[in-house]
Amino acid sequence: YREEVHQLTAWCGANNLSLNVDKTKEMVVDFRRVQSGYSPLIINGSSVEISKGKFLGVHLADNLTCSLNTSSITKKAQQRLFFLIKLRKAHLPPSILTMFYNGTIERILSSCNTAWFGNCTVSDRKSIQGI
């Protein structure tokens, strides 16, 4: 695939186009016990290799663990839980509080959970269920 990338950069150069290297990412996932050395992909003198990134709202790490995604989700949900507590102290009716919870907090906790929840560790699941 590296040859294809080099052909693409050559084609872009020939047609007065430029690749946005800041938005181009490469993540290598290798589960072998002894990982072989590999050279990072370089486009126009810049390396595009990353060890973690965000794709379609799910935080991914190169070892495919869910800890990075879980910590991001719990942080975001706890921030919104703070506002729910403030609304409760303002004596809003329970129906409004339920709508706020369903619209903000539950949406975060259930987004893309089929992609990452099955791969979570016990401590990650406890942190999510504690919200």
TrEMBL record:
<dbReference type="InterPro" id="IPR015095">
    <property type="entry name" value="AlkB_hom8_N"/>
</dbReference>
<protein>
    <recommendedName>
        <fullName>Alkylated DNA repair protein AlkB homologue 8 N-terminal domain-containing protein</fullName>
    </recommendedName>
</protein>
<dbReference type="Pfam" id="PF09004">
    <property type="entry name" value="ALKBH8_N"/>
</dbReference>
<dbReference type="GO" id="GO:0016706">
    <property type="term" value="F:2-oxoglutarate-dependent dioxygenase activity"/>
</dbReference>
<feature type="domain" description="Alkylated DNA repair protein AlkB homologue 8 N-terminal">
    <location>
        <begin position="67"/>
        <end position="106"/>
    </location>
</feature>
<dbReference type="GO" id="GO:0008168">
    <property type="term" value="F:methyltransferase activity"/>
</dbReference>
